[in-house]
Each structure stands twice: as structure tokens, then as C-alpha cells.
């Protein structure tokens, strides 16, 4: 599933092409792709809207229209691309939005897990999300206090989008290794100094992921290079880049997790 760096890469790639375009018509080819509103209202509301900006909130793409926000969550296999409007739809195209300039924004989703929202009030979809890792709100002090209050295992808590927005399996494993914290450590055991290191690690791995256009691993996104620079993720059996100890794959909160047993000793 794409995480913050991959979604940010999508936004940056699509923004120059889409901004200023007018939406002519929407071809919804699988109704369940749409979360809200109804298919009939969706086609009615979106027609004639002009695209003002393309951004991101957590793992959601936010395409800002004149009167609405078009929110897209790619989930496991979703992909967004701009095509010439004369090209025939592909097998897994779920939504085709025809634009001015003879172009179409196409949402292709093999596994049908992705979802689209059209809303005049994006907080009804995004309102429960935690702070963005690059926001002013996300400070090391905030992180330490929040960790103390939750009393949960570290990795499942960091994956909780209501706690921090945008982290997923890859970048959580990478940040925990960089900060030398074990994924099952109790959040309320993290000291203020450790929280500061974790705060810096989260931002560092996300910035590096964005710089390398995200990671291409096990889903449709194939534009990134960050997978060539992983510290622990997907490297079970290989040596830790810090100490040389063999990286282990364990399961934490039903998620495959990669850890160095020497650098990230379980207390």
C-alpha cells in the first residue's frame, strides 16, 4: 500500500498536468469505487468543475476543485495516470474523468480496494487523522506526550492513522531501526530523548523516501527507487547496515516487521 512518500510523489507528478483543467464528464465504470456521494450525484456535481490544486493529506490524494475536494485512496493496487482521451479504457479502469485538452485522469485498480470521495467538506473524511509528520504540530514534545498517553506497542501505534498520518509498514520499520527502538516496546516507556530521536528518524526516512520518489515493492506503483536504500524493511536474513547482525522478520500487530535484534534490543 502506498505511504506518504509515494502519495506525495503522485501529487507532485500530477499537479503540473491537472491544475487549470476543466472536468468535462466522469465515467464511473465500477460504482463501488465511489464512497460518497451516489454515482448520480457524483457525475452531476463534478461536471464543469475546474481543478485548482493537487495535494496530499496522509495517504489520501486531495484534488481540489472549485467547489469540492476529490479525495482518492489508492489502497493496495490503485494507480492514477493521465491519458489521451481517445485511448480506449483498460480492463481495470474504475473511473475515467475526461478533462479539457483532450486528456483523461484515469483511476485504475486491479484489486478494487481503492476508494474515491467527492465532498464539499473534506473534514468528514479526513477529520480523524493525526498530525502530518512535517507539520508544526508534530514536534518531539508532542510525540513524547502522545506516546506516554497511549500505552500501546510502538509499531501498531505509529501505524494508526489517527495518531500520526501517513506512516505505513515500510517507513515505520525504517524509522524504528534508525531510532534504535523495538517495534513491540511500550509507547509509554519511550523517554523524552528517545522521542526526539524517533521524531527526527520519522522525518528523515520520509524525506529520503520523497527524494527518491517513494519505494516500488509489491504493488502497482513502479516509479520509486527507495527500495534500494532500505535499512531493514524486506531485508530479512541480510546483515544490518549498522552492526552486521542478521535482520529478522517478526509479526507485530498482524503485520510483517523487520528488525535488527542487536540495534533494536527488546527491553
Task: Describe what this molecule looks like in 3D.
The protein is α+β, with helices and mostly antiparallel strands and 267 residues long. The protein has 7 helices and 11 strands. It has a 5-stranded mixed sheet with strand order 2-9-5-4-3. A 4-stranded antiparallel sheet has the order 1-7-8-6, covered by helices on one side. Helix 4 crosses helix 7 and helix 6 (169-178) crosses helix 7. The longest helix is centred in the C-terminal third of the chain and has 20 residues, at 192-211. The chain is elongated. The two termini are 30 Å apart.
Please tally the β strands and state the result: 11
Number of helices: 7
Helix share of residues? 25-40%
Topology as H/E string?
HEEHEEEEEEEHHHHHEE
Strand content: 15-25%
Average pLDDT value? 95
User: What is the CATH superfamily label of the largest domain?
Assistant: MutM-like, N-terminal
